[in-house]
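Section 4.2 – Deliverable D4.2 (structural model, holo form)

The reporting period included a commitment to supply a predicted holo structure for the target in complex with magnesium ion. Inputs used:
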Amino acid sequence: MDLRYRKHFDAERGEHGKGSMKDGSGGPDILIKVPPGTLIYDHLTGDLIADLVDNNQEITVAKGGRGGKGNTHFVSSTHQAPQFAQPGEEGEYKELRFELKLLADIGLVGMPNAGKSTFLTLVSKARPKVADYPFTTLVPSLGVVVHKSYPPFTIADIPGLIEGAHEGHGLGIQFLKHIERTKIFLHLVSLGPDEELGPLQRFEVIKKELALYDPDFKKRKQVVVLTKADLLPESEVKKIQKDFAKKKIKTLTLSSVTRDGLDEILEILAQIMFKK
Ligand SMILES: Nc1nc2c(ncn2[C@@H]2O[C@H](COP(=O)(O)OP(=O)(O)OP(=O)(O)O)[C@@H](O)[C@H]2O)c(=O)[nH]1
Ligand SMILES: [Mg+2]
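Output (structure tokens):
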């Protein structure tokens, strides 16, 4: 990306107006390429100048200098052949801040260690770091799911969320902006028996944090998956699913080790994505 290597861009000033009846030409444009999902802010005022979502979308953030008018513009009854022309104008000066938001169809949410990154590696070619400790993921990543019966769709993996995340606890909150525009939240809840809170409580904590961050998140379609199902006997898993069902929450189960449950999850995600 252009911006990684260069921080200053000067569109040239306009050319000075000329004699011999010529105007100066405008300074040539400079095109800075950014990926879709880029937000451009005025650094001084904080105002949002542009929200570039589409491929090949183009906006002008700072105007180059206009060319000066040539001597013929200043012809009057008393000045038949003026010996002066207008100088070219300086271009606009702007300090801008660029922010990249991932544009994903589906956002993975859940506590640290829930198996979010593992899930992304199972369903896409993305290779986020996976490890047996919380806060493994420090930066968001994006994976493309290529499904045999549906068009491709994208999933964003972000760091895990914890209680108090909306107040800045943990890491997750600053990354929630990356899932703001997703159609679906894929909420992963670990069935791992070594966790402090039970699965339903863990789910409720994350649900609350999401709603506190943005009340609109409550309206987002969500799919709840109980992960690490291989770590509990099936009867235990069923019992936990019943606890969720009592609260009218439908759950799917997954083992990333055996891949049990994976096809059903992808089918349901694709159905929500593509079937009206
Ligand atoms: N037994 C079992 N272990 C799993 C499963 N899914 C993930 N794990 C393990 O759980 C640990 C955490 O997995 P990650 O994918 O890194 O979890 P995460 O949700 O991305 O964690 P953070 O990035 O910290 O938020 C790793 O050791 C995984 O190998 C599963 O279905 N079964
Ligand atoms: Mg992770």
